[in-house]
Amino acid sequence: MTASRRRQAALWSVASLAALLSLCAGSTASALAQPDPAASAGFDTYIHTLETRLAEQHQKPDAFLAPVNLPDADARLRKGEFLIENLTPNPPLELPGALLFHWRGTAFVPGTGAADFEHLLRDFNSYPKYFAPQVLQAAILSQEGDHLQTRLRVRQHHVITVVLDTTYDVTFARLDPQHGYSLSRSTEISEIEGAGTPSERVLSPAQAHGFLWRLNTYWTREERDGGLYLQIESVSLTRSIPSGLAWIVRPFVESIPRESLEFTLHSAVNAVRKEPAAPEPPDQPAPKS
């Protein structure tokens, strides 16, 4: 096959996939506007098990990070590789009308400390800079100490472009100055039509396509060996795929959570390499008795 024919075939494949995804999205949008209660319950059960494991893990300074089950993991991390693991249950969980994906990424950043990374994660107003072009807007809605409510507008482009307004419940915590973690749980996800145009509007639950129903993200950080080990786990819940289109659409849909996690990890590492730790506030004089 000539180069011209290969290009034409590739373009046809992309166009066909885009059409199929649009058909898939529109064919059952009203039926799958919101996750089935049984799917939501299954997601919550899975999250409870995961967060129980993380809570135990985060009390052990000698086993603060989850082990990376890949060959030569330590050596590869020290060489600067980003190690990505698919933790999605196989066989898949039985979630009516929904798909659950679970990915974990691990990286090592030499010459960086835990305080550097926590400062980066807390700087929500700079997320559109750190995580461009996926994050378009970011804001803190409320804050009480280490507990925050945040809102992000995110853009995902995988053949088709989807813009979502996402609200999260976020908690920061640390075991000691060298060990810290954060939990981010989605509380509301809305699909935006015509984002950035005069006709922009929020799609109602009955109109939305179910590209993303739930997304929880968990960061774990450990400072040692002259740098910072970072680990991110993400668990997402999306609408399922009609069986007649699964053979072509499923590989595409399954790639989105992995690519999103890899993008987030790469962007965070690139940002923290340039981001100094926030200065400590000056010591306050002791109050007079």
Layout of helices and strands:
Layout lengths: L2 H25 L9 H21 L15 H6 L4 E4 L11 E13 L3 H9 L4 H4 L4 E10 L2 E12 L1 E17 L2 E15 L7 E2 L11 E11 L2 E13 L6 H27 L17
Antiparallel strand pairs: 1-2, 2-9, 3-4, 4-5, 5-6, 6-7, 6-8, 8-9
The CATH architecture designation is 2-Layer Sandwich
CATH class descriptor name = Alpha Beta
Give the strand tally: 9
> What is the rounded Rg?
21 Å
Task: Write up what this structure looks like.
With 289 residues, the protein is of the alpha+beta class. The chain is 32% helix and 34% strand. The chain has one domain (19-272): Alpha-D-Glucose-1,6-Bisphosphate, Chain A, domain 4 (2-Layer Sandwich). It is built from 6 helices and 9 strands, in the order αααββααβββββββα. The longest helix is centred in the last third of the chain and has 27 residues, at 246-272. Mean pLDDT is 84; it is low at 6-21, 23-31 and 276-289.
What descriptors fit this protein?
single chain, 289 residues, alpha+beta, Alpha-D-Glucose-1,6-Bisphosphate, Chain A, domain 4, nine-stranded antiparallel β-sheet, 32% helix, globular, disordered C terminus
In brief, what are we looking at here?
The chain has 289 residues and is of the alpha+beta class.
